[in-house]
Design goal:
- The protein is mainly alpha-helical.
- It has three helices and no strands.
- The protein is elongated, with a radius of gyration of 18 Å.
Length: about 100
């Protein structure tokens, strides 16, 4: 994935976080959420998305008439895309960490 694509994904994640109320528009400093909390909130959101997808799939498999195949497929794709986005962020963080560790003192 190129830098431009990653920047676009990050911009989309920021927009989603802002619309979900996870990100504050206040300047960084005292009282602003730190990176660890934002990362944990993002992981929790991905986990909730995957659990919702799983529960919809289970309900569909059990023959619940209120759950359609389209709903299950959309929920599954949302969970997959959110997981892939978090995975890409993790890969970039790991790469940045490795670059920092390779720097001479």
């Amino acid at each position: 994935m190129s830098d431009m694509q990653i920047n676009q994904v990050l911009a989309q994640m920021r927009a989603l976080a802002q619309s979900a109320g996870l990100e504050q528009s206040a300047p960084r400093g005292a009282g602003a959420p730190d990176f660890a909390n934002l990362l944990k909130q993002s992981l929790d959101h991905v986990n909730q998305t995957q659990q919702a997808s799983r529960s919809l799939a289970t309900a569909f498999e059990q023959g619940d008439p209120d759950v359609s195949l389209a709903e299950v497929m959309v929920a599954t794709q949302k969970a997959s895309i959110s997981f892939e986005a978090v995975n890409q962020v993790r890969n970039r963080l790991l790469s940045a960490y490795q670059d920092v560790m390779k720097m001479p003192i």
